[in-house]
Write a structure and sequence with these properties.
There is one protein chain. This protein is an alpha/beta fold. About 40% of the residues lie in helices and about 15% in strands. The chain has helices at about 30-35, 55-60, 75-85, 90-105, 115, 120-130, 140-155, 180-190, 235-245, 250-255, 260-275, 300-305, 325-330, and strands at about 45, 65-70, 200, 215-220, 275-290, 290, 295, 310-320, 335-344. The strands form two sheets. A seven-stranded mixed β-sheet has the order 3-2-1-4-5-9-8. Helix 1 crosses helix 2 (about 55-60) and helix 4 (about 90-105) packs antiparallel against helix 8. The protein is globular, with a radius of gyration of 21 Å.
C-alpha cells in the first residue's frame, strides 16, 4: 500500500499515556499515528525496537495486533505497562494504595545507593526504595508508573530545574517530594486503557525468528536506535537501574549502538525482518542523518546498502516542531530524517 505522510507543525502531545516516562529518543505518537491509521485493522504490526512502546500502543489503539521487541529491560517494562492497563481506574487506585500501606509499615532504609543518594531528598528516596522492594507484586501499568514517578521525583527534589528528558546539575538543598502521593497522581494522569491485542517480548531483535514465525507479520514499523547517538542506559535510566540493582553497563554492552559493529548487527536484524515479514508486507524505518568522522551520513543510504528488501520508497523531511530546533539554530545545522518504506 502507498502511505501518505505529511509534515507536522507539532509532534508534541502532553495529554497522553506517552508522558508516563521520559524515554529518550522516542518517536512522536502523533507522527506514528498518521502512518498506523492507514494500515488495515486486521494487520499484524511489529516494532523490533519498541523502546517505551509508542508504536505498539498506538497500533493497538487502532485495532491492530501489535508486537513489540526490545532488549532494554526498562523499555520492556514501559511497553508492557502501556498495553496492559486495567479497564477500571479503581482497580489501579486500590492496588497503589495497598502497596503504599505495605511500604509505610516497612522500616526505614539505613543505607542508600550512592548515585541516587546524591540526587534525592533522603525522605523521598527512602519511600522509593521501600516501594522498589515490592516491584514484583505490581501490575504492568502500575510498574511503569512507578518508574516514571521516580524520574518525576528526581526532578522535583532538584527544584524542577532538570528537563523532562535530561538529568541536570544537583540543586541544593534538596526539596522533599512525597513519592507515594506523586505515584498515585501519575497513575491517574496517564490512565488511557485500550483493548489489549498486543505482545511485548524481552528479546534481541537480531534473533526475531526465535520468537516469531516466518512470514507472520504484515507491517514492520520502527525508529531504530542510531549508532553513537543516545545512551539508553544513561540519564534517568541510570537512576532506575541503580535503584533496581541492575548492572546498566551489562545492558549497555548488548544494545546495538556502537559504530564499529552497528552495520553488521543491523544487517542481521534486517535479514530476520525479511524472514518474519509476509510476502507483500512492508517495513517502515524512520531514520536520520548522522555526522560521523566529520562527514554527514544519510540514514536512508546507510540502510539501503544492507537491506535485503528490493522494492523501496524514501521520503525525506527536515525535523519540525521539536526541541532539536534550538540546537540546530545554535550549531547552524538543518538536520533531516528519512522514512524508508520497503516491500517484500
Amino acid at each position: 500500500m502507498e502511505f501518505k505522510i505529511q509534515e507536522l507543525d507539532s509532534v508534541n502531545n502532553p495529554n497522553s499515556i506517552h508522558g508516563i516516562y521520559p524515554y529518550r529518543g522516542k518517536i512522536s505518537a502523533i507522527d506514528a499515528e498518521q502512518i498506523i491509521a492507514q494500515m488495515p485493522k486486521d494487520s499484524v504490526l511489529l516494532d523490533p525496537f519498541c523502546g517505551s512502546g509508542t508504536i505498539v500502543y498506538e497500533g493497538a489503539k487502532f485495532g491492530l495486533q501489535t508486537i513489540g521487541v526490545d532488549i532494554n529491560p526498562i523499555a520492556v517494562l514501559l511497553s508492557k505497562g502501556k498495553v496492559n492497563i486495567p479497564k477500571n481506574y479503581s482497580e489501579v487506585k486500590n492496588e497503589v494504595i495497598k502497596l503504599v500501606e505495605t511500604a509505610r509499615e516497612m522500616p526505614d532504609f539505613e543505607s542508600f545507593p550512592e548515585y541516587a543518594s546524591s540526587l534525592f531528598h533522603k525522605d523521598s528516596l527512602n519511600e522509593i526504595l521501600k516501594v522498589s522492594t515490592l516491584i514484583n507484586e505490581m501490575s504492568d501499568y502500575v510498574k511503569a508508573c512507578f518508574l516514571g514517578t521516580i524520574c518525576l521525583t528526581a526532578r522535583g527534589c532538584n527544584h524542577y530545574k532538570w528537563t523532562s528528558s535530561t538529568v541536570g546539575k544537583n540543586i541544593e538543598p534538596k526539596r522533599y517530594i512525597p513519592f507515594y502521593e506523586k505515584w498515585l497522581q501519575k497513575t491517574k494522569k496517564h490512565f488511557y486503557p485500550i483493548k489489549n491485542n498486543s505482545k511485548v517480548y524481552y528479546h534481541d531483535a537480531r534473533t526475531l525468528t526465535d520468537v516469531l514465525p516466518e512470514e507472520s507479520v504484515d507491517f514492520v514499523f520502527s525508529s531504530p536506535p542510531y549508532f553513537d547517538c543516545l545512551d539508553y542506559t544513561a540519564y534517568y535510566a541510570k537512576i532506575i537501574y541503580e535503584i533496581l540493582d541492575v548492572d546498566r553497563i551489562e545492558i549497555k554492552n548488548i544494545l546495538i549502538q556502537d559504530y564499529s559493529d552497528y552495520k553488521k548487527n543491523m544487517k542481521i536484524v534486517l535479514d530476520d525482518l525479511y524472514r518474519v515479514t509476509k510476502k507483500g508486507g512492508q517495513v517502515i524505518f524512520v531514520v536520520g542523518d548522522k555526522k560521523i568522522h566529520g562527514k554527514v551520513l544519510n540514514g536512508a543510504d546507510f540502510f539501503q546498502q544492507i537491506s535485503p528488501f528490493k522494492k523501496s520508497e524514501v521520503i525525506e523531511r527536515t525535523y519540525s516542531g521539536t526541541s532539536s530546533q534550538v540546537f540546530d539554530k545554535l550549531n547552524n545545522t538543518l538536520r533531516k530524517e528519512q522514512i524508508i518504506i520497503w516491500e517484500k
